[in-house]
UniProtKB/TrEMBL annotation:
Belongs to the pyrroline-5-carboxylate reductase family. Residues 156-249 form the Pyrroline-5-carboxylate reductase dimerisation domain. Residues 3-95 form the Pyrroline-5-carboxylate reductase catalytic N-terminal domain. It catalyses: L-proline + NAD(+) = (S)-1-pyrroline-5-carboxylate + NADH + 2 H(+); L-proline + NADP(+) = (S)-1-pyrroline-5-carboxylate + NADPH + 2 H(+). Coiled coil: none annotated. This is Pyrroline-5-carboxylate reductase. InterPro entries: 6-PGluconate_DH-like_C_sf, NAD(P)-bd_dom_sf, P5C_Rdtase_cat_N, P5CR-like_CS, P5CR_dimer, Pyrroline-COOH_reductase. It is found in: Cytoplasm. Keywords: Amino-acid biosynthesis, Cytoplasm, NADP, Oxidoreductase, Proline biosynthesis. Pathway: Amino-acid biosynthesis; L-proline biosynthesis; L-proline from L-glutamate 5-semialdehyde: step 1/1. The gene is proC.
Length: 272
């Protein structure tokens, strides 16, 4: 069965690369369409995927179609298309619900929140499916997500907060690391910023591996690093003072943005 991808921005491209890297989908069975054809051609040069002339062609040729456009482009695009009820439509958009998707497609629909880290076959794909999926469709869908990530089913109540932890997190972590590196250089200008960044990346990789390989809890790792009466303890005290309120604000602001997006999507449902 062919797998379709409409929209080749960050996430559409990640899916192409990850499905090819994991060998979950033979490249010739990946059928893609992007508004700007050059993006598709660049990917084709590397992966030998098939390029469709239109989004409709993707839907006509594929049993599963990942729609990877921006949230406000999802429903208008699906309304324009004529998609067989046999086709499983998967939206990756934040703020577009299963009910929204069921309103524009008569067949099976799912929602997945992928992460850019799945290009390295790591990270978590959050997903929620409609009741309309057959056992076979569900198994195939899970197989695809599991080939590129840890596939985690979540309720639509959980998905927004979980999105911040899994899908926004690579960007947020990069922001935290940049701030960490900049502060180090402000403190000690002799230290080169690029060296500070490289040190943090290597340290982050090592930290993640240690946590995972030894199945350490965060508290256990802290205990291992923070020598009693030592230096790290002082740093942790500062973080305890400043981070909780910062993260509370982060979740409040991202929730507001999710709410705004959902309102705009709902407006698209009522305009006709
Ligand atoms: N970037 C990320 O890490 C994540 C993004 N998402 C979701 O993925 C979706 C896409 O996000 P990005 O990839 O970051 O955006 P992007 O702006 O990089 O990509 C959107 C792509 O869709 C194409 N496009 C727009 N309308 C189209 C149409 N009618 N037909 C074909 N192609 C069309 C654009 O040319 C562009 O290449 C959003 O809905 C976002 O919520 C979800 C999880 C993570
Ligand atoms: O920032 C965004 O809107 C998308 C959804 C989650 C990650 N990136």
């Amino acid at each position: 069965m062919n797998i379709g991808i409409i929209g080749l921005g960050s996430i559409g491209q990640m899916l192409v690369k990850a499905f090819c890297k994991s060998a979950a989908v033979p490249p010739e069975k990946l059928v893609v369409f992007n508004r700007t054809r050059e993006k598709a051609e660049r990917l084709q040069a590397e992966y030998n995927i098939a390029i469709a002339e239109t989004a409709q062609e993707v839907c006509d040729q594929c049993g599963v179609v990942f729609v990877c456009t921006k949230p406000l482009d999802i429903l208008p695009l699906l309304r324009e298309l004529s998609v067989s009820a046999q086709t499983h439509v998967v939206s990756v958009a934040a703020g577009v619900s299963i009910a929204d998707l069921e309103g524009v497609h008569t067949g099976a629909v799912s929602k997945v929140i992928p992460t850019v880290t799945s290009q390295e076959l790591r990270g978590v794909s959050l997903y929620a499916c409609s009741q309309r999926l057959s056992d076979e469709q569900r198994e195939q869908f899970l197989g695809l997500l599991s080939s590129i990530s840890l596939a985690q089913e979540v309720s639509e109540q959980e998905i927004e907060t979980a999105t911040i932890l899994t899908s926004s997190a690579p960007g947020l972590i990069a922001g935290i690391l940049e701030s960490f590196a900049q502060a180090a250089v402000r403190k000690t200008p002799e230290l080169q910023i690029d060296l500070a960044r490289r040190m943090l990346v290597e340290t982050m990789l090592g930290t993640a591996m240690l946590l995972q390989k030894e199945q350490l809890g965060f508290d256990q790792l802290i205990e291992r690093v923070a020598t009693k009466g030592g230096i790290t303890e002082e740093g942790l005290r500062v973080l305890d003072k400043t981070l909780p309120s910062g993260f509370d604000e982060l979740f409040a602001m991202t929730e507001s943005k999710h709410d705004l997006l959902k309102q705009l999507v709902q407006k698209q449902n009522t305009v006709e």
